[in-house]
Amino acid sequence: MKSAISSRPRILIVMRTIVIHDGKILLIQRSRNDTHEPLKWEIPGGKLDQGQDLETAAEREVIEEAGIYSTPIKKFVFFEEYLTNKLKKYKGLPYLGFSSLYKSDSTKVR
Known about the structure:
Elements: E1 12-21, E2 24-25, E3 28-29, E4 41-42, E5 45-47, H1 54-66, E6 70-83, E7 94-104
Parallel strand pairs: 1-7
Antiparallel strand pairs: 1-2, 1-5, 3-4, 6-7
């Protein structure tokens, strides 16, 4: 059986998606009950699931967080890198952040 430390990913990869529609950018707000930065406004995004590519992660996060489908306009841009210290279970891991530009296929956000 693997220990919690040995089963951790070696690099934490986060994909963020800038979604535009009619010249507006989609921002979402974290829940008041979120354990990490409650009520913070941000663009949709999150950690890649195991075996998932950046584009699939971007599309999945927008669907999960805003309930809309989107289409890529510009591919990935590296935007951030540091050692994680904010999230206990990922503390000390290299963090890589990527972003891409998408257009919304819908006008209704959940």
